[in-house]
Amino acid sequence: MIEVANGWLVVERWSWRTEPLDAWLRSLWLSLLSNLDAGVGEEAMFRGYLLTGLNKAWRKWIGLIVMAIPFAAVHLMVSGAQETHWLPFTVLLCLPGIVLGYAYLRAGSLWLPIGIHFTWDLAYDLLNLTGGPHQGLFGAVTRQQGPEWFVGTSYGIEVGLAGVVVAALVWIGAWGWTYRRNRQVQGQPLMVA
To answer: What phi-psi label fits residue 84: left (phi over 0), alpha (psi between -120 and 50 degrees) or beta?
Structure first.
């Protein structure tokens, strides 16, 4: 919203208006499959396996930070990552890893981080937050022209302030959802004195 309002992310067109229906449906299907694969695969590997083991060996916060480092490191090989120096890229990509790990530990299940991860990736294909065309894009075709410190690079908003803000909002949302759910499961009132 901030990016569009400031002219930093320009929506040039919507792909469903210009693509033939079969090409658009193919892009939608590709996006759904690839994002489900990334969401389930990465969450099972980094949160389900690695974080579970680290959490048993160390305290929760140490495990979260240690798990987030290899999560960020594997994303160094993704297209667009080369535009950001590897050190700030890794630090900034640790944040989504920590948020997803926190969601996993709070929920006690992989369903919440898988849902967050899938939705995040799907939003990229709908809103095209990286700018420019890419495979799986089924929504907006955009051009990014804002300052990199805010909008990130062609990798995505995770390497800019916008990504930090979104990660913080997801963190708050995960806490709120799990707080409400846990209170209801325990039969306690939602209001705390």
So the answer is: beta
CA–CA distance, 37 with 31 (Å, rounded to integer): 10
Contact at 8 Å (CB) between 120 and 93? Answer: no
Q: Quote the tokens at residue 125.
A: 């294909």
DSSP 109-131: SSHHHHHHHHHHHHHHHHH-TT-
- Which residues lie across from 9 on neighbouring strands? 144
Please give the chain's pLDDT, 193 residues, in tens. 677 787 787 888 888 888 889 988 988 999 899 999 999 999 999 999 999 999 888 888 899 999 999 999 998 888 777 778 888 888 999 999 999 999 999 999 999 999 999 999 898 888 887 766 666 678 888 877 878 888 888 788 888 888 899 999 999 999 888 887 776 666 665 554 4
Residues 6+ apart with CB under 8 A from 142: 9, 10, 11, 12, 127, 128, 129, 131, 132
Specify the DSSP class assigned to residue 156: B
